[in-house]
């Protein structure tokens, strides 16, 4: 701000000085110009024959010259006064101008101050805006947070509801499963019983087969692809009551060897349990020579 | 001999348990390899020790290896007719089968022989246990032969295979005396060594008897006049003819299955080689050549090839040459000495001499697997000859330092020695089926 004032100030000073110098110089010029004119005017007076009229004309002329002189002087004074007045005007103008400049500077200063103020105000405003924005943002965030929280709460609620539903479903399922389990267990019990019976049968089947196997003298030179079927009637205690040749192998030696093996294996190993034994009262035996075991 | 134990993989199916008395389903695929237990009860009316039919049947069945003979002499029951048989008793004795019979003298020194083969375990739907029942009439001298015949019938009925108890064996019997030159006999006897009969008696060594397929002729090598020659003798008439007398070796004759050709070993071209002589046309064709010793020719059962022993590979091994093409393949790879091979009648095996640890055994090689099974045990065994049904092998062996004949069942289960003779028994040859 100071700089801004400094420059116009210096400028104003220089201008004043210049104006004053100019003013003085003009004054000197005026004096010089008037002097030669007076000299020139005196010269024609030296003429000898004067005539009255001529005198009178001369006098009048002189008088007029005087008058003109006076008038010139007046005029010069007037001019000087005018010049002074002009200078004075100029000075006043200058002063006015300085004042104007001053005013301008002041105005500028004021303007600047105003500007600064405006700027500050603007800044403040921006700041306020920022604050407001921040506030808005924070509000927004808060709002969002709130929304989010709400959503979360809702989700949690939904989850809870779902869990509850699931629990209920599970409970129902478990209940159902329990029912099923109970049913399955019952079935398993039946199945186990059946299986146990089957296992027992399989065991006795193996034992019976082994017993016959131990008695079966496999005939030599038997074709590999022949087989016979026997129906064995088993009595209590495993006694072989009858062996029927249901289907001959086509080779009587094989048929006889198989039937002999069954009869020689009597009594067959059978269970004492009657229901189990009932399953062994009849045995279908397929005899198909494949090989020979130790014996 | 126990065969490979295979795990039983048969199905075991259980039928619906709800239905009562549904039959249990079982499958039997494995059994035991065991001789069939059989009881042969002394025939009624026989006190003759030497021609006891029951004894002969027992011995025959025992030799085969397929039967286990129960001691019936101590039995409480001695049935002779079907009506007298208590099956439960014989079952308890462990018999699967029972042989009973009777010998009834007829007028004129003849005998009526009755025999019954019974199944002690099974009865047919009519309750009958009889498997065989036959009646014969014969001279006293025919009783032994009849006994062998009955053995054949029993064997075939119970095994499905033709019996060889009526076949014969040929062999060389050498009789040595302290102050005399040894006597050589070519003999023919029943397969159990009974009823020997000389086909040829000579002061010169006799070797390598071989039967013709019809069982009526025997070819052999004789060193009469200190030269080897191959002769063929007619067993019934005793007439004989010389079929080969080339310089050098004339040896190891072998009749072709059709009887028209004779394989032999000749060394007329230096090394002993296999030749085939056409017995009808008389031509001789050389089958093998080279620097090796080729000997002991035998025919394949179909007559298309000849197997022989050769040292062409560095040690004695068995080779086979196709008669049509002459192409030769080696058959034995087990051990460093395999010789004197002959095919089993089914062509699936080779009976041969096999050396192991410096000892010589009779062995059976399975053609397919190459597996070798020893059939004899003494370590001095030679000259194997296989029975026409493939069930037994006869061979020369030693007992107590004396040469004699041994028989092994080809399943290795039974090894017997034939009754000692007055002399050294060598080079047995089993006849084909006769009659």
Topology:
The complex is a heterodimer of chains A (295) and B (435).
Chain A: H1 2-42, H2 52-213, E1 228-234, E2 240-247, H3 252-264, H4 274-278, E3 282-293
Antiparallel strand pairs in A: 1-2, 1-3
Helix pairs in contact in A: 1-2
Chain B: E1 24-32, E2 36-40, H1 53-64, E3 67-70, H2 87-92, E4 97-105, E5 110-119, E6 130-139, H3 142-159, E7 168-177, E8 180-190, E9 197-202, E10 206-211, E11 217-222, E12 229-234, E13 240-244, E14 250-255, E15 261-266, E16 273-278, E17 284-286, E18 294-299, E19 305-310, E20 317-322, E21 328-330, E22 338-343, E23 349-356, E24 359-366, E25 372-374, E26 382-386, E27 392-399, E28 402-409, E29 415-417, E30 424-430
Parallel strand pairs in B: 2-3, 2-4
Antiparallel strand pairs in B: 4-5, 5-6, 7-8, 7-30, 8-9, 10-11, 11-12, 12-13, 14-15, 15-16, 16-17, 18-19, 19-20, 20-21, 22-23, 23-24, 24-25, 26-27, 27-28, 28-29
Explain how this protein is built.
The complex is a heterodimer of chains A (295) and B (435). Chain A is mainly alpha-helical and 295 residues long. In chain A, 75% of the residues lie in helices and 9% in strands. Chain A has helices spanning 2-42, 52-213, 252-264, 274-278; strands at 228-234, 240-247, 282-293. A three-stranded antiparallel sheet of chain A has the order 2-1-3, with helices on one face. In chain A, strand 1 (228-234) and strand 2 form a beta hairpin. In chain A, helix 1 (2-42) runs antiparallel to helix 2 (52-213). The longest helix of chain A is centred in the middle third of the chain and has 162 residues, at 52-213. Residues 31-42 of chain A have low confidence and may be disordered. With 435 residues, chain B is mostly beta strands. Helix content of chain B is 8%, strand content 45%. Chain B is built from three helices and 30 strands. In chain B, the strands form seven sheets. Chain B has a five-stranded mixed sheet, with helices on one face. Chain B has a four-stranded antiparallel sheet with strand order 9-8-7-30, with no helix packed on it. The longest helix of chain B has 18 residues, at 142-159. Chain B is globular and about 70 Å long. Mean pLDDT of chain B is 90; it is low at 1-21. Chain A binds chain B through residues 194, 197-198, 201-202, 205-206, 208-209, 212-221, 231, 243, 251, 253, 256-261, 263-264, 278-295, and chain B through 2-6, 8, 10, 12, 14, 17, 20-36, 66, 91, 96, 119, 121-122, 158-161, 411. Strand 3 of chain A pairs parallel with strand 1 (24-32) of chain B, so a sheet runs across the interface.
